[in-house]
Every structure is written in structure tokens, then in C-alpha cells.
Amino acid sequence: MKTNARLLKQSSDKDDMNAKSLSTILHLKQRNEELEKENHVLKQKVQAAQQLSLAARLASNAKERVGEEALKEKEVRLTTICLPIIIYPFFLS
After folding, report:
1. How far is 66 from 61, CA to CA, in rounded Å?
2. CA–CA separation, 8 and 16 (whole Å)
3. Cα→Cα distances 35→1, 17, 38, 43, Å
């Protein structure tokens, strides 16, 4: 009788432990899936931020080049307008 009671208690304890272990496994699996989703979202955000950074850098470089080209064009205009004015009087004398 005592042996049966002891074996029944051991079996019950094992069943309880298995149920707790299964519950823990399922909880950890669910948490792992949540973390994987969060990781995926974070990777997408990082990629978007990198693309935005690249676009900003390209826009900045383009703005700088446009400014340089505008300055060169202004210098060319001034040279073509002012140079004849400066040289012309020398031809008159």
C-alpha cells in the first residue's frame, strides 16, 4: 500500500513537473517569436534610417555642386561682361 501511494505521488509530481515544463516551453517559444518580430521591425527601421541618411548625404552633395556651378557660371558671366568693358577703353586710345 505504501509503495503504491509513493508511486502515485511520484507519478503525480512528475505530471505536475511536466505540465510546468511544457507551460514554460510554450511561454518561451511565444516570447521568442515576439522577439523575432521585434528584431525584424528594428532591422527594417535601421535599413530605412540608412536609406534616409544616404538620401540626405546625396542631397547635400548635390546642393554643394549646384552652388559651385552657380558660382562658376556667375564668374563666367562677369568675365564676359566686364572684360570687354575693361579692355575696350584701351582700344580707343
Report:
1. 9
2. 12
3. 51, 26, 5, 12
pLDDT tens, position by position, 3-58: 888 888 899 999 999 999 999 999 999 999 999 999 999 999 999 999 999 999 99
CA-only gyration radius of the chain, Å: 40
**Rounded Cα–Cα distance for residues 30 and 38 (Å):** 13
Residue 52 grid coordinates: 534616409
| Nearest alpha carbon to residue 38 among 26, 27, 46 | 46
Q: pTM, whole model, 2 decimals?
A: 0.59
Helix (H, G, I), strand (E, B) or coil at 93: coil
Q: Is the dihedral of CA 61, 62, 63, 65 positive or negative?
A: positive
